[in-house]
Design a protein that fits this description.
The protein is of the alpha/beta class. The chain contains ten helices and 13 strands.
Amino acid sequence: MKVVVFGSINMDLVVTTPHLPQPGETLAGHSFFTAPGGKGANQAVAAARLGAETVMVGRVGNDSFAMPLLANLEANRVDVSQVVTDSEVSSGVAFIAVDDAGENNIIIVAGANGRIGQTDIARLRDLIAPGDILLLQLEVPLTAVLAAAQVATQKQAIIILDPAPAQTLPDELITLADIITPNETEAAILTGISVTDQASAIEAAQNLHHRGARQVLIKMGGMGALWSMVEAIRHLPPLQVEAVDSVAAGDACNGGLAAGLCAGLPLEEALPWGMAAGALATTSHGAQAAMPTHTELLDLLGGKRPSR
């Protein structure tokens, strides 16, 4: 069993600032740094750091970002043999602003991620096997995401769909996913229901079930998460950590969930891995650099204070 990630690889360009700018506002920032990111690559690193055999399927561009992006994935034990270099475009980039409260906003330029298509699906088809876990996100073309889900279904793999960045989705994709994992914003866009508390999260989850979702995990930050099956609902309380940066917390959650399943845990026992990974990711700055180790995750789940 392995984790296969079909998705984006970006270089993040990060600015820290006292508060997020309003339209037309110019701010003096605290600092600037670059860091490997992309929702696909983030989830791959998260799963690999937690001990899962992890393979990335994606693209980088013909630029100076490509080599450090691939080197970082390899340094985190992610297999990049299925990542190709697209000679006609740049690598994907994300421009990220993070304020003193740890909130963020992000602008993404897809680059090579936007050209993922049938040749990448063919590599996925040759790679994925029954029982594998496929992690999907929406920073690559939706047609490719749907095709990847169709391939994984044919191969009897487990599909975890992160519907981010937020957008509307066809019911077919929602139906194909074994579990869909929106945050509050994404759930609202998918369902038209504003998710502000547990009751509204339940309403949104039920809407997704009506559209074919088998299991729904709504990630609600400081309110924890709601795990909904058609026949049962469970609230997952938040884990207490000192958050400094919420970038990629959702990616850490999905990677942690996949790693737990890859370790042979049933979904109910793998969900706390996702919750702990997401919480720990908020205690450090950056995306992939903030992904926790297996030891850190087990310490947090065991009640120990994280030391990062």
